[in-house]
Amino acid sequence: MIFDNCDVTEVSLRIRNQQEPAENLIMNYDNNQIGRVYHRLWSFMGRYQNIDTGLQISQRDFKTLYPIYYFSLNHLDLSKHSVVDVKFQATIGTVPAAGIRAVAVLLSDKNMILEGGGGRMRIVDAPIENL
Questions:
Q1: DSSP 95
Q2: For the residues of 28-77, what is the DSSP string, one character each?
Q3: Which of 83, 73, 74, 87 shows the shortest CA–CA distance to 125?
Q4: Nearest Cα to 7, choosing from 88, 79, 91, 76?
Q5: Which residues, including other chains, have CB under 8 Å from residue 4's CB and lie 6 or more apart?
Q6: Taking a C-beta distance cutoff of 8 angstroms, is the pair 95, 24 a contact?
Q7: What's the pTM?
Q8: H or E segment at 10?
Q9: Between the CA of residue 90 and those of 21, 83, 94, 124, 128, what are the distances in Å?
Q10: Would you call the peptide bond into 96 cis, given omega within 30 degrees of 0 as the criterion?
Q11: What is the pLDDT of residue 73?
């Protein structure tokens, strides 16, 4: 197994007081109810990757190998803020094994510096003209 889905049942991302998506993403890996989170990743990869290749992760692989959660921040108003708190929240169905880690990858068309620790991540420097 590359990544363990940890039986995640719900995820959300909050930047300042704006949530993406508006409602938490709810899923059930055991019952294959992962279509909404898989479709979000698929739509991102279809839009930004080569149209001939698209998303190279099947729904089965998403479930068992690559449970990657995609959040679009394009519609959020982050202008005029040089420090922005970012909070990712996940509800898990079972207690994970000791030493398990969550990995966050942030892709941006804007220049910014991120700082993380203690379960939190925030933008610490972003020139206004880049937001």
A1: P
A2: BTTTTB-HHHHHHHHHHHHHHS-TTT-----HHHHHHT--------TTS-
A3: 83
A4: 91
A5: 67, 96, 100
A6: no
A7: 0.68
A8: strand 8-15
A9: 13, 23, 12, 24, 31
A10: no
A11: 76
* Residue from 48, 51, 47, 88 nearest 71 by CA: 88
- The helix (run of H) or strand (run of E) holding residue 113 is strand 113-117
* pLDDT tens digits in sequence order for the chain, 131 residues long: 578 888 899 999 888 788 888 899 999 999 999 989 888 888 877 655 555 666 677 888 888 888 888 888 777 666 666 677 788 888 988 877 787 777 777 666 666 667 777 777 776 665 554 44
The pair of structure tokens assigned to 39 is 């479709």
Helix (H, G, I), strand (E, B) or coil at 130: helix
For 83, the token pair is: 């420090």
